[in-house]
Amino acid sequence: MLRRTNAYHISVLAVLIAIIIVQNVVPFFGYIPLPGLSITTIHITVIVAAVVLGPKDGALIGGIWGVIDWVRAFIAPTSPLAPLVFTNPLVSVLPRILIGVVAGLIFKKFRETHPTWGLTLAGVAGALTNTVLVLGLIGSLYSHQAAGFYQVDLSQLMPYLLTIVATNGIPEAILAGILAPLIGRPLLKFKR
């Protein structure tokens, strides 16, 4: 029984790592551009890892995403702002690790009593963790560069970033809150 559990764990971990890599490499798979915004879907894979495998493996999957973003900022930036901010692991790696930690811990708290709500809350909290931390770190560590990039006055940077949280972060959180239970529940049933 222990070998079967370890095999399941390693298999799911490997598949999720592969999905993270594909989402970062294949255009429109990890980042969906829409008029005026870009919806990130990669965080959903990190959240699923966190709820199915636990916060530690969720952090690992998030860290892999962060390292890929960090490397891409040097060799193939996804935007003109990426080489300025995502070359700093505090912005590119740390928030992605914390997605897994936050989502995993929230689901752990609700797993026995309200698993579906736990999956939904883990999805929403994981998505918001990424959005708020990345934009907050950009706003606090790179305020002058970000203001120039977004073409706003420095005094208007935080309101502008909060608008991005509302236009990108909330749809991403809603999407994660819907998809985390839809993907997580079958995987959790199979795990048992």
Automatic annotation (TrEMBL):
Record's keyword annotation contains Membrane: yes
Annotated InterPro entries: ECF_trnsprt_substrate-spec
Keywords: Membrane, Transmembrane, Transmembrane helix
Origin: domain of life: Bacteria
Coiled-coil regions listed: none
Residues that span the membrane, as ranges: 7-26, 32-53, 60-78, 90-107, 119-140, 160-183
Pfam families given in the database record: ECF_trnsprt
This protein's name: ECF transporter S component
Organism: Lactiplantibacillus modestisalitolerans
